Amino acid sequence: MDREWGSKPGSGGAASAQNEAIDRRERLRRLALETIDLAKDPYFMRNHLGSYECKLCLTLHNNEGNYLAHTQGKRHQTNLAKRAAREAKEAPAQPQPHKRKVSVRKTVKIGRPGYRVTKQFDGETKQRSLLFQIEYPEIEDNAKPRHRFMSSYEQRVQPFEKRYQYLLFAAEPYEIISFKVPSTEIDKSTPKFFSHWDPDSKMFTLQLYFKTKPPETNKPQPPPTANGTELHHLFLDLYCHPPPMVNGPRPMPPGGAPPAPPPPPVGNNTMVNFTPGTQMGRPPTMPPPPQGFQGQTDAGPRVLRPPPPPSMG
């Protein structure tokens, strides 16, 4: 009989301790392959001989399966615990941040409260306002409703939209309700922003005013550019209102006093005896008067007289 005692007829015989160890390591290797990524293992290393090493336990392995089976063994697990304890002991003690414990009340919500929203407009200040009236008939005793503003980027219910913000109202045991309002700066002055809770009628009132945008400052007009339209207007202005002549009479100043005459030429000035028309070969405007006529004076206008008739005697 070539089979060992204790096995069933037709079977390969009872497994030996060596075969059981081989089978156990194979099962551990398949399990480790499904749960462990060798690329993230800091102790896994492949040497130049093509075999694998464990840098933590300094062991040599023929294949990846053998290394994975080693990582599930007692020796590797013990070394991991020792390494973690040594690192925790050598690490500097850092103060733990003080976390304030906030106990969240777990109450049964009874639904949403009734509300009324009124839009208002102030004709004097040109401001728009909203009046919220929230009714809490079943509010808890000695409780007061609360409100707060929430940015559009803080909530996770609707898509982000920077043009709007949310106004929230909360009171136990009612659900929290919110209103989507424009994201404009709110006037927090005392007479315009106020909230009031009436415990008798169980109504919470809140009024807010939005600030108006400041008017834009008067910017200086840019100089006219040389385009067709402005040139056309410029030509019309020159045609309808021609500029004064250079040599003509000067306009009166705003004060009413006549302008002072120009000073007489002093010194050797080449432009003193300038006569219009004598330059560039052009004849003068008026010919000079003949010399030796009677009635010619040095001052005043020249008077031309005919010569006396010749004596016949």
TrEMBL record:
Record PROSITE patterns: ZF_MATRIN (PS50171)
One Gene Ontology CC term in the entry: catalytic step 2 spliceosome
Gene Ontology MF, one: nucleic acid binding
InterPro entries (alphabetical): Matrin/U1-C_Znf_C2H2, Matrin/U1-like-C_Znf_C2H2, SF3A2, SF3A2_dom, Znf_C2H2_sf, Znf_C2H2_type
Keywords carried by this UniProt record: Metal-binding, mRNA processing, mRNA splicing, Nucleus, Spliceosome, Zinc, Zinc-finger
SMART domains noted in UniProt: CactinC_cactus (SM01050), ZnF_U1 (SM00451)
GO biological process: spliceosomal complex assembly
All residue ranges annotated as the Matrin-type domain in the record: 52-82
Region described as Disordered: 1-21, 246-313
One Pfam assignment: SF3A2
Sequence ranges of Pro residues compositional bias: 246-266, 304-313
Cellular localization per UniProt: Nucleus
Name listed for the protein in its UniProt record: Matrin-type domain-containing protein
